[in-house]
Structures are given as C-alpha cells and as structure tokens.
Amino acid sequence: MKSTIINLKNKPLTQMLALTGTFALLTACSTEASTTTASSDGSTTEATVESTLASDSSYSESNSTAISFSDDTITVDGSGAAADGSILTITQPGTYILSGTLSEGQVRVETVDEADVQIVLDGATITNSTGAAIYVKSANSATITLAEGTTNTLSDGETYTFEDSEDEPDATLFSKSDLILNGTGTLVVDANYAHAIKGKDDVTIAEGTYEITSVGDAIKGSDSLFISSGTFTIDAGGDGLQSTNEEEEGKGTLTIESGTFAITAASDGIQAATDLQILGGDFTITTGGGSTNSSTESEAWGTWAAPAEEAATTTTEETTSAKGLKATGSLAISGGTFILDTSDDAIHTNDTIQITGGDFTIASGDDGIHADNTLTIDDGTININQSYEGIEATEITLNGGNITLTSTDDGVNTAGGNDASAVSGRPGENTFTSTSEGAGLLTINGGTLVVNASGDGLDSNGSIEMNDGTVIVNGPTDSMNGTLDYDSTFNMNGGTLIGVGSSGMAMSPSSTSAQSFLFTSSIPLAADEAIQITGPDGEVIMTFEASTTAQSLVFSSPDLVNGSAYTITTGGTVSGESTTGIYEDTSFNGGSSTVDVSATTEASSGQMGGMGGNSMPVSGASVK
C-alpha cells in the first residue's frame, strides 16, 4: 500500500492531532510529521518525528481482535494473533483489544511486513518476571491506547532471559519501532530490571495518566521523545524522561507541549541527547536527592547505583549528572510552571538556553541555570532560592523577566574555559564553550534582577553592559569578593542599578559609561537597614533596604545628573512592602550616618582594588 505523507511543518502536536483526527488507524499507512525545536540563535529548526496516524485513539471493537487474559491462559477472538502458552504474538496489522490479567507471560509484536499495530489496553495487567511485558520486535509502528476509564499495569522482574546472547529488550514496555501512547486511561509500570518505557526510534505520548516506578530510566525515546499532554508520576533510579540519539543529525530531540509531571529521579529529571524544547506544562522535579545533597560539596555525590546490567558500561560522565532539565544542544522554554529541587544544575545545556516565558522556583546544589555557550532570558518569573552560582554562561543576555536569586558563590557569572570560580576539583563544576582569556559578556537590556550573593554579585571574565532594566545586588560581606567584578569594562548606559557589599574588592562601572553613577566604599550599613539617596534640593532619588551588611554602594539611575552632589543616608527604617528592596512612596525614618557623593562617570574601586584594573582611590565621597 502506498504511504500517505502529511506535512505538518512548524505545527505543534495539538494541530497534528486535529489534522489526523479524521483518520482511523490505517493498515500499513505511515506519516512523517515535523515538529520544531529552537536553535542556538532563537530560530526554529525541524525535527522530524516519523509516526503512524495513531495519535487518534479511536478504534472499532467490531473490526478488532479481542484478547482476554486469565492467569497464564490467553483467549484470542479474531485474527492476526496467536497464543503459545502464556506468550501472545501479534503478526498482522490491525487493532487488538487486551483485557484481564496475564500473571506470567508476554505480548510480542512481530509483523512480517513491518505493519502498523494498535494495542488497546482495556483493563489489562501483564506481568513477566523474565522479560518485557510488551515487546515490539518488528513493526512499522506500534500504538498503545489506554482505554477510557481503565487502569492497566505492566511489570517485570529483576533478571531477564535473552534470546541468542542479545541484551534487549531492556524495558518493561520495549519497542524497536516507532511507539505511540494515547488514550485517556491509566498505565502503571513497575520496572524492576532496567527501564520502564523505551523506544528505539521515535516515542510520542499524546495523552493519558502514567504512574511509573523504575530502577533505571522511566521513559526513553532514542530518535525523539514528543509529549503533547498527559499526567506523569515518576520515581526513577535513572533519568525521568530521556532521548538518546546524539549521532544522527536531527535526532535525539525531546519536546513537551503540555502536561503535568511529578518526577523524582536519581539522575536527570529530563534529559535530551540534543535539543530540548518545553512549550508548557506543570513540572515538579527532584533529582539526586535534592539540593540538600549538593553536587558542590558531597564527596560521594554522583555514585548512585546504576542497574546491574548497565554498571559495566555506564561512564562516570553519565552517572554523575543529576540535573533538572538538561540538553546537549539547545534548550528552549516558552512557558510552564517549574518547581526544581536538584543536587546538580537545575537547568543545564552544553550549548544555548533561551527562556521566553515560564514560572520557575529553583533550589539547586550547584548552578541554578547554566549554559556552556549563551543564555538569553526574554521573559518569565525566575526565583532561584538556593544555588552555588545562580546564572552562568559564556554570554548572558537579559532582555526581560523578573529574576530573584540567592547564591553561595557568584550570583551572575559569565566566564570562559573551566568553572574557574569553583572550588578546585569539586563535583558538578562546568566547562564553557570559549577557552580564551577575557571571554564572557553580560548584557542587561531590561527586566528586573535581584541578586543575593555570598560571592561576587555580577561577575564577568570579560565585560558587562547595562542598557535598561533594574538590577539590585545584595553582595558579599567578605573582602575577597565584590558587588561587581569584571575584567574588561562595565558600560552603564541605562536603567537602574543599586548594589551594596563589602569594600575590599568593590568596583564601580567603567569610565566609558554613558550614564552617571554614585560610588562609595565608606558607608556603614547593617543588614535590614534602609538607605535613602537624596538630591541637591533634598528630593528623594532612591529608598532601599539592604539584606546584608555593607561598606560599599554603587548606584546609577537616569535621574542622576553628572557632577551634582547627592547625599546617602544610612541606618534608617522604612514602612511598606517591597519584593526587591526598592521602596516607592514610602516614609524613611531615622538615619545615623550620611555620605556626600558626586555623580560621575569616572571609574573607582574599593580599598584593595577590583579585578578589572580600577585601582584608583575612592573619589567624591566624604563622611559626616
């Protein structure tokens, strides 16, 4: 039969379902559907997902073969399948409806002409203690449909018996062909040998409820994993969701349109061999025991036990990864709600990250968000409540969004080469695309960024450029770190910047800045005390409550006039509420110390000088 090809270029899976909904399952009729993933420059590239038209979960009972299980007995009513003891083998294309309990057996698909097969699980329980419960050995594609209102269970044992020295299947539900799961029913998988659901080609999940416990990975798609919707509860000894083919161009992608995901994984929560794209969904992910089992501190971190059959072949790189969202290629997020509690990086890619939306709550034992190459944030709400370094990449561009982060080292870091600021040899440290000295660029064009850092607040091995937006830095208290730390230049051209911290390594923006700033390393400030900056005529320019003790302050605003004198009053209190520390239309009370500072574009640094070469003494400041 001639294949029917439908081009779904640049259309999400929901549109694909609408187009394919008019079709029933067609015998030996395949399609080629194209989905999109974001490339490193933010554009989209096609990732081909070959599948049947089985995204339509409808079926006709009158045209199907009914198969009933009772302990180790199989009854076949129809054609295309035969039972040999407790082994059911499907050899012809068509739809097969399975019900009942098979206590020790297997469902095999071995079509002679690489046909399409639909298996409807209609209240079926299949247990196989020596192999896969469902094994698709040969077919063009296999569709597993979960009948409405039913709960279906697949389980295996701790050891498998293989044919002819093979090492597959290695999953409770295993397919060598394209695999599609749909229907609104529930699938419970108890994987005791290795993985729960694994497809050697493309795996597409359109809907359904999945409750998975696995000693290995929960859901694996080699060429791609595409999830349109569904509810997933996963407890995995390996990765939660995974694609694996990194050898072939356009393969190894992982795309999620929507769904609800509760993932607890010893390794990565969601891992793509190449590109990862998330358009929406609700995600609660815990990896590696959570952020309390920090990859930056624990000497035993990364030694979680792999399944026995993988122990001899699993590399150190594969085992020592417990990231929340991970990609080797591009990682693009345009929406969704994320609660990530990870012992390793919460969001990580070896290439580029682009975030254009979403709501993130992150607790990380390493970096909150890390990209080896570039990281761009256009929109979204990001709260990094715990991290080693908050946001890290070779180049970071912030165009919008609301970001609040807390870090035990640098808040925002752009670097090249190895993670040089990390403790030498610590687990979880990262590399960067560029290895040259002075690599690193932080560009801030908009949005709000609040940094609470024990290390440097904003740190660049190269340059920083701020053109708009609001940046608040509650910086370090020790003298070896600074609110700002850059090796080349910090051009302050627009927006509002306020940063407080220790004075030892304090730095101002560069003399090449277009916008004036105030800088002093002579303020006495206790944590939770308020600062007010007033102009020559007593007008209030800024009221700010710091969350850390400080001796230095850097402030820049379009309201400053170059050469004018401003008074900084510390030790006060404020009333009202603020999520950033900046207060508007509030009353400032008290104040025990004042410093007069002139607005300037001349660079200055603290008592010990910063790493950017600005070693001149503090200018324009006097203490009253």
Describe what you observe in this structure.
- With 624 residues, the chain is mostly beta strands.
- It folds into 2 domains: 61-364 and 373-403 and 423-436; 490-623, no CATH class.
- The strands form 3 sheets. It has a 46-stranded mixed sheet that branches.
- The chain is elongated, with a radius of gyration of 29 Å.
- The N and C termini lie far apart (91 Å).
- Residues 49-62 have a biased composition (Polar residues).
- Residues 35-62, 602-624 are annotated as: Disordered.
- Keywords: Signal.
- This is Carbohydrate-binding domain-containing protein.
- Residues 1-33 form the signal peptide.
SSE arrangement:
Elements lengths: L12 H8 L9 E9 L5 E9 L12 E7 L1 E5 L3 E4 L2 E4 L3 E9 L3 E5 L5 E13 L5 E5 L2 E6 L4 E6 L14 E5 L2 E5 L3 E6 L3 E5 L2 E4 L3 E6 L4 E3 L2 E4 L3 E6 L4 E3 L9 E4 L3 E6 L4 E3 L3 E3 L3 E6 L28 H4 L5 E3 L3 E3 L3 E6 L4 E3 L3 E3 L3 E6 L4 E9 L3 E6 L4 E8 L3 E6 L4 E3 L26 E4 L3 E6 L4 E3 L2 E4 L3 E5 L9 E3 L3 E3 L3 E6 L15 E4 L9 E5 L5 E6 L6 E5 L8 E10 L7 E2 L4 E11 L22 E3 L1
* Unreliable residue stretches: 1-54, 304-319, 417-427, 607-624
| Total separate domains | 2
**Compute the gyration radius: what is it?**
29 Å
Task: Name the average pLDDT.
Answer: 84
Please state the oligomeric state of the protein chains shown. single chain
The total strand number stands at 54
- Approximately how much helix is present in the residues? under 10%
Task: Kindly report how far apart the N and C termini lie.
Answer: 91 Å
| Backbone structural class | mainly beta
Characterize the biggest β-sheet.
46 strands, mixed
What is the number of helices? 2
Strand content: over 45%
Principal-axes shape call: elongated
Region (Disordered): 35-62, 602-624
Keywords: Signal
Biased composition (Low complexity): 35-48
Pfam families: Cthe_2159
